[in-house]
Amino acid sequence: MALGNSQPREPSIEPDIQYIKTSTSFKDAVYTRRSRPLAGLFELGIRIFQFIFALASGISYAIELSHSNTSPSFIYTQVVFGLTLLTLIIEAITLRSFRAVFLVESVICILWLALFGVFYTIYIDQEMSLDPRYANVELRRMRNAVWLDLVNFVLWLASAIFSTIMCCSGTKAAVRGKLNGMKAKRRNGKYEDAENGMESGVVRTDAIPGNGDRLPTYEVVMTATREGRL
Fold first, then answer.
1. Which domain holds residue 219?
2. What's this model's pTM, rounded to 2 decimal places?
3. Quick one: 153 and 221 in the same domain?
4. Is Translocase set as a keyword in this record (predicted)?
5. C-alpha separations of 67 from 51, 63, 155 in Å
């Protein structure tokens, strides 16, 4: 190949464009999944059911708490109820990124499970006699509230699993985008090095043996020229 016929290769701008796009690919991946009809219907439906069942359970315990049942277990029910409503309100008025939402929902799920376990032992488990501190209640209401606690646990478990899937999907896309961006920068760097070599009059070709990826010296170029390889 003659030196006069060498044409510098224009660096491609596609890798840079791809890098810019993938820099926000976490949100892109999450929004793509959330835009599906089933995902949107699931989110809306589960939020409605979480609010309804949390309200039913919280009010049941609040009624008994107002009847001077001030044991720590009844106070704990209102703490869980309050945290649940606060989480639902925050998620309703803010844009969910799913980066930390699955952690919050997992904590709420565990709180409901603990609440169910405590009051199941008190009001459902017949192997133990009823503690006098919890006897001054409407037993039927409390037993219904226990099963409402179980429903709340299942709802928040499903929500936590959904958020975890969203977070994993977004993280996978973000990592893939960063890797593609690094490869694009590496390719652009090679194109710039080749163009700079052409402009400075230094020849870089695979026809010269033993050069690898290094630029040949003047003596090597002259020797290859005399031998007719350039």
1. 204-230
2. 0.64
3. no
4. no
5. 25, 7, 29
